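Checklist before submission:
- one chain only
- standard amino acids only
- sequence pasted in full

Submission:
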Amino acid sequence: TGSVLESVVSASANITGGNVLTGGLISATGNITGGNVNTGGLISATGTVTGSSLLGSVVSASGNVTGGNVNTGGLISATGNVNGGNVISSALVQGTTVSASGNVIGGNVTTGGQVSATANITGGNVLTGGLISATGTVTGSSLLGTVVSASANVTGGNILTGGQVSATGNITGGNLNTSGQLSTSGNLAAK
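Returned file contents:
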């Protein structure tokens, strides 16, 4: 019911008391079992801290954080790389550069800038309200449009039209065959 005042208090069995109050250290080589650990300071461990939940305004680790899932209603921020099997999002994946060494599979690729590829672009259709520009050859089974324009030669098997073929220069060919009329406002000369 009183106090025990000594520089060392030693017991080989259990010590039972209401509270253990000290301005120094509590040290144990074995496990410390208790209902809660409440502190206004830090909890520091050189080994693993294991628990069902770690709750706090800031959880900080200088090494790796390994867990089953990272669930947050806020942000996940990293200044370095984020490595994972898949990035699945119902919202946006944003960045100054989004890079992938494998395939990028998505519903749509929408950009106000450029879509650039050094290899082939394979798709069902190329639809544009602007121009399709190529420094190389455009190859296809059909070129359909109100105007097909070329500043150089146009090479093809046949020129088929239900309208007119008009040229301001010479027309050179092997034969000129027609089932209709041949009309000219100038001279018709044969060699």
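Reviewer check: The two ends are 140 Å apart (CA to CA).
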